[in-house]
Amino acid sequence: MPKASVRMAYAYDRLRAYPPEVAGRIATAIGNALGVRGEEAVLLELGVGTGRIALPLIARGYRYLALDKDPGMLEVFRQKAAGVMRKVRLIEADARAIPLPDESVHGVIVVHLWHLLPDWPKALAEALRVLKPGGVLLEGWDEMEAEEERLIQERWRSLVEAEDVGVVRGLHRKRLEEVEETLKRLGLRPKTKQVVQWREERTLRQALEALEERLYSFTQLVPEEVHERIMPGLWAWAQGEFGDLDRSFTLERSFTLRATRMA
Ligand code: SAM
């Protein structure tokens, strides 16, 4: 296992983690949307990452098929799930070719994956294929807002664009709309609900480090040499703009769930 990939996965895990209360509310919303008794239900998560959605559900008794194509993410997931692994099967595979039979799971969970797949319809078709009749597709997403984070990311973007590299933003939201349209075209009826809103403190340094470590998908298409060239300028700008980089700011966060039941 390459150490760098596990280190990245831990950094991702720290940045995206939910406070315990929030993680519990999300698990409850997913359980309610499923409408199946916990002990019996089998859930599959596509692009499970380090398990921030999965672990509270596993703790509640669901059997969990944790699929991801990145062994570093699955390794961190495995370390975090120590003690409850008997309920879990790790599947290192591509979401566009799920190695499971048709109609074999009660719920398919997808959080922050569609926008990473240019050919997302293949993964959506696979998700629908493995759901049992009456099973539920559960798509979730985070939103976060803070003026400081916005200013830092805007500056990052202008530095990248000055290097003649285009940055694509807003893909996540657009992809969610495309998936919703597809589900409706198939005669299904997705229902969307904001599950929880909360506030978090983050330091300016943490916001810069997330860009430095390329934890957001919009940073990952920037060539390595461009990334290395612009980052010192970003840190210097932030130092001049904000002064103390260990100052914290408030991040408004929320989690939304869209549930679509198969006929
Ligand atoms: N769902 C997790 C969460 O919300 O914390 C992880 C989200 S992370 C942005 C996307 C995850 O999808 C990563 O763990 C990545 O390895 C995985 N992934 C990306 N493309 C994939 C594919 N084609 N098949 C399976 N997993 C994939």
Automatic annotation (TrEMBL):
Matching SUPFAM superfamilies: S-adenosyl-L-methionine-dependent methyltransferases
Pfam families documented for this protein: Methyltransf_11
GO molecular function terms noted in the UniProt entry: S-adenosylmethionine-dependent methyltransferase activity
Keywords: Methyltransferase, Transferase
GO BP term, pick one: methylation
Coiled coil: none
Keyword tRNA-binding part of the UniProt annotation: no
Range of residues in the leader sequence: none
Domain named Methyltransferase type: residues: 44-138
Protein name, entry field: SAM-dependent methyltransferase
Organism for this UniProt entry: Thermus scotoductus
